[in-house]
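Input chain follows. Return structure tokens only.
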Amino acid sequence: MRVQDLIPDREALITPEYYRRKNQLVQNRSVTLKAQGLTPAQIQAIEKAQQLPENLALATEIITGTAEAGAQSRAGSNVSERVRGMVDQINWDYALIERLNKAELRTELIPFNLGKAVVQKDPAHNLLLQSGDVITIMSSNDLQLPSDRKTRLVRVEGEVAAPGVYQARPGETLPQLLLRAGGVMPQAYLYGLEFTRESVRKQQQENLDQVIRRLENQAQSAAASLAANLTGERAAQAQILQQQQQQQQQSQIARLKALKSKGRVALELDPAAGESAKPIHLRSARGKAADFEQLPDLPLEDGDAILVPSLPMFVSAVGSVSNENVMIYKTGKTVGEVIKSASPTDEADPSEAFLLRADGSVFSRRAAGFFNSFESTKVMPGDTLIVPARVDRESGYNFLVRALRDWTQIFSNLGIGAAAIKTLKN
């Protein structure tokens, strides 16, 4: 007996687990819909309009009027998860024969190329089997495959001609996939394109967890040091103030723990493109190759997500400002004008203000350089100006600022958005 006799074709490698997973996806949908209290007419409409099980939840929400923002994103995520979960990716370049050497009573490992043996019918890899041999087929879960041989599923949504979940080709880049998805729509805002990556999200979350642990250690050390120095008649009052301060700090740390990194990759696009003859944020027709010249040739990985937003006509300011409402964007609007419109509070520190760009990058006063004015920097649609508070008075909010030293670190390294400012302030 040889390898081909045991594994005659590809289908022989399909395990019962595959069919079990598949049956779970194509189970009787009518029973599920009836359990949700839908009428026969609604069930028929769903089954007619939605043939794929991954669209079932979204279709149900639309029919019953319970659709909410982000439903399409969830459906796209479910497609990716279900495709990955259907079958394990086989390593066709490597398999093992485990053989007992009866003369020496030890196990021998004999590698061979599974693809050449089963698919190409290569006699050199169609090895002769012996009694007691065990063939081990490797999957991507056992050994990490080369990137070109991995299944890379990328979610594309927003202002594109054909949103969906795409299998990225070997070496395919961000601009190339957008073109394959039909290009972008006229109202697409490429400067604000949100590109998220799972590996980046995990790293950002690790950075955030490290910051939280450091803050907890600093708070405990400061409390222990202060307690050791409490003496005299005012020790009781000082202890009460210390407890209040610790409660504030613990509350802020708890809110910081609630924040989750997004995994967004800052594309660092050139804002000057918005002032060019062909603005990157305005489109008169579906995107062509020339439209994506500003986008980096970033190779895609499994789990990447691309969201092309529509053009926002506003900028916003958050932090220690009296007016946190969004402001209408006007061409040529500067940081100084946004600061003036936002009206910083008495405790604000405008000298430490920085700009969270729509492309995910951070632009601070230090980045503006010695000869350039931060206030004269032109803002782009979707930009957010962040004005931190001075750190000359103690509070739970300023405890975080002082401990982290640099607000730009929070947004650049930890992957949290401008909405986190409101979470930490409240």
